[in-house]
Input
Amino acid sequence: MSTLSIPLATPDAGFGQDPWWVVGLKVLLVFVFLVVLTLFNIWWERRVVARMQHRIGPNVHGPQGLLQSLADGMKLMFKEDLMPKGVDKFLYVLAPVIVSIPAFLTFAVIPFGPTVKIPFTDTYTRLQITDLPVSVLYVMAVASIGIYGIVLGGWSSNSTYSLLGGLRSSAQMISYEVAMGLALVTVFLFAGSMSTSEIVAAQGSNQSISFFGAFDIPIPGWYAFLLFPSFVIYVISMVGETNRAPFDLPEAEGELVAGFLTEYSSMKYAMFFLAEYINMATVSALATTLFLGGWRAPWPISIWDGANSGYWPVLWFVGKMMCFIFFYIWLRGTLPRLRYDQFMKLGWKILIPVSLGWILLVATVRAVGREVEFQRNYLLVAAGIVALIAVITMFLPQKKTPEPEAVETGEDFDPFAGGYPVPPPLVGTPSSSETDSRSKEGSRG
Output
């Protein structure tokens, strides 16, 4: 008689060797973590922005207003679900689903910590659901799918404001996904892999920059220091990727009512809202993994021998994530929304060219210099050159074209003479009478 045995993962077991119940447990924990983190981030954003604007913020529901986000979620859940006339019903309902599901899937390859032992069992597992040789490309691909939900939601709503919000969202996806992808190329060059767990392992050892043998400056092995231009470009691009202020052009409450969300209510609106905050956590977790050492403890906590073992790394990882979330909130409470032309100029004329130049410099250093000290020295010089070019490009004086002055005529201008209101004629612009006379002369000739 045979007995059913459950396989136990060993401390050195890799991915794909976990029992089914361990995989299910990790999926459930990640889902609960993201939902609770969203509720906390909404409350935290309200409290921080209220403090910046000298207001009180939520303080009634629960201690310090901690249950305010839960109360808002329950309100949206029991609110009447309205569907305007003339919408494409299938896409109108499908759009929130397309936005919310990829937001959860991206966390499948994010490492929260090293291999640990599950309490009350003899099973070991890594604090990561799975890993792929191209994990970073997987995150970017899945995150890009969510943007299509915004575009389809705006198009299917049969509303001008919603359609404009969807078009702006597609423009943001094209503009800032390119800059974000280019910012990650240098990380792949240095780590030698696109696997998230291997990139974290590559940032494990402390390094130092030698100024041509004069003196050494110790720095952490984080790529945020070694590849600082890439880090800055990624941080700017992730704000545009998640449609957050000052890049919240798809919503734009001032000119588009609420953009792609104008015709949504109840749980469909809540799913869009949930996806936005989970996407903030996703890009923050990816920035932590690729540039801030992932779950590894920062200095001086890293001096402690047990800082990077057990469940302590989860605390360091979440702490780094919350720093990026605070950066999001700080931007929203500080900066006004950019104009559309400013937004496009920043993406296409500054971020993408600087990214391409930085990739060329890093690839050259990696190809020519084989010694670690040589690479770090020249990377420091290259980073300074890229920063100088970016500053010069941003502050170059723009050539202003003089605005034409209005034509001074002896008789008063009547804007409603033709039945429709028209502006007065400008200098160099022929009036309607002149245009008619020229057209008559041309027909005679």
Observations:
- The chain has 14 helices and four strands.
